[in-house]
Amino acid sequence: MIPGVLGFLVGAGLFAATWKDIFPKISQFANLGNTILPELWNVSSTLMALVFVEFTLFLFYLLERKIGQRVDKMAADK
């Protein structure tokens, strides 16, 4: 536990020490203004919404499948 806490503290210290030097460079490079993903990728917002919905449903399917397997294993162990 101590090495983890020391790692957090060292990381926070490095972040604080380099923030003023690194942030302006990152901000200049990544400043795209007020944009949304469909504009960045040059696709229809409807298409983007459909892909997001399909991905979400697929993720729910995978989670349900995995949870269902766990319930079956837990019932078999009893």
Protein described:
Helix content is 86%, strand content 0%. It is built from 3 helices and no strands.
Indicate the mean pLDDT.
Answer: 87
Shape: flat
The major pleated sheet works out as: none
Count up the helices. 3
Radius of gyration of CA atoms, rounded to a whole number? 22 Å
Low-confidence spans: pLDDT under 50, at least 5 residues? none
Which percent bin holds the helix content? over 70%
> Structural class of the secondary elements?
mainly alpha
Write a concise keyword list for the protein shown above.
single chain, 78 residues, mainly alpha, 2 domains, 3 helices
Short description:
The chain is mostly helical and 78 residues long. Helices cover 86% and strands 0% of the residues.
